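User: Can you write out an input/output pair for a complex, sequences first and structure second?

Assistant: Here is one pair. Inputs:
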Amino acid sequence: MHDFQYHKPSSVADAVAALGSGEDATLVAGGMTLIPTLKQRLAAPSDLVDLSGVADLVGVRDKGDHVEIGAMTTHAAVAASPDVPGCLAELAGNIGDAQVRNRGTIGGSVANNDPTACYPSACLALNATIVTNSREIAADDYFTGMFETALEEGEIITAIRFPKPEAGKYMKFENPASRYALVGVFVAKTGGQVRVAVTGAGQDGVFRATDIESALSSNFSPDAVDSSTIDVDGLNGDIHASAEYRQHLIGVMAKRAVAACA
Amino acid sequence: MPSVTMTVNGKQVSGDVEGRTLLSTFIRENLDLTGTHIGCDTSQCGACVVHVDGRSIKSCTLLAVQAEGADVVTIEGLADGEELHPMQEAFRDCHGLQCGFCTPGMVMSAVDLLNVNPDPSDHEIREWLEGNICRCTGYHNIVKAVKQAAQTMRGQAAAAE
C-alpha cells in the first residue's frame, strides 16, 4: 500500500474541505472495498478522508412512510434495526461475512456501486432517494454504470431514504467461492407499484427488469415471471457464469422472490 | 508520522505509525502481540480477527489510525490470568483445532457471535464463521466447540443472576 495523508473530520463540511485539500483525495467509509484495493495498489490516493468521525451520518430514523438510514450505518446495524423493513434488514444481514458487516456501510456500498453489490438493487426496487450534502437524487437517476454514479466531485452521501413497501424480498444466488451475488433480484411492491431490480448480472451494473415489472403489475404471482422476457443482451458473461445462465437465474430468483412476498 | 493511542486488552498503548499501517501490523509489530495471525492479508481468511469496541473485525482491513481511541481486545486478552475463556476451553476440549493457525481468529469471531446470539444453531454458527477459513478441521469440531462454549456461558450467565 502506498502511503497517504490521513484525515478524520468530525463534520461533513470539514470532510468536503479535506477532500479539496489533497491532490487526489478519496473518502473512506467502512473501507471494506477500499482498503483491499489500496493493498493491491489498484488505487493510490494522496489523502484518505475517513468519515467515521462524523457522528451525524450514523443511525436509522423511522420517518413514518419511509425510513432514513445514515450513510455510515453498518450492515450489521441495518440488519439488527427494528425500524428497517424486513426485506432490507435481511439483505443487509447477508452481505459478506460477519466482520465485513461490522465495518461495511450502506453509504460506502451505494457510493462504490459494485456491479455485484446487494444494496444498489434495494435502492432501485424500493425507489430510494440518495441524500447528499448538496441534493437529493432518485435511485433511478443515481446508478449510471459499473462503479459509476451521479455523484459529483466533493459530493458526499449523507443518508438514504427507503419508502416502506407493502411487500418485498431480495433473493441472491451467490457465487459459491466469493459469495458475491452472481445474480440478485429484489422485488418490491410499494404503494401498489411493483419494481424489480437486478444486481450481479448487468454489464452496466444494477438495472430494473421492466418487463418483469409489467407482468407482475397485472398479476403478482411467480407464474407471471414466466410470461415475461428477460433480454440476454447487456448481461454479463464471465468465467463464473455465461450471460444465458444469468438470464435464466434472473427468472428463477424473481419467481422465488415473488413467492416469498405472497 | 501520525501517532495513535488505543486501549488494547485493558491497557492504554500508543505508538507512531504511518497512515497506511494496518491494525494487524500495529498489534503484531509495535505491541508484540503475535497471537493475531495474518493468513491471507486479503480480508478473506479471518485469522486476524480482533474485537474493536466490542465487535469482531478483520484487523488486516483496518488502519491503525482508524482504531484511534478504540477499545481493542486480541486473543491474548481473552483469558483471565491462567483461566482460559470458555471458548478457548471448548476449542481444547472438542479438538476444534489442528494446526492452530486459524484458531485465534475463530475464537474471537465465535465470542462475538455469542455476544449477539447466546444460543446459536449449528447452521447459524456455520453462517457466522463464513469469514473464518480453516484448512484442517473440516469445521465440524469447531462448530461443536462453539456450541459447548455457548452452553457453558449461558450457564455462567444464569448462575450470575
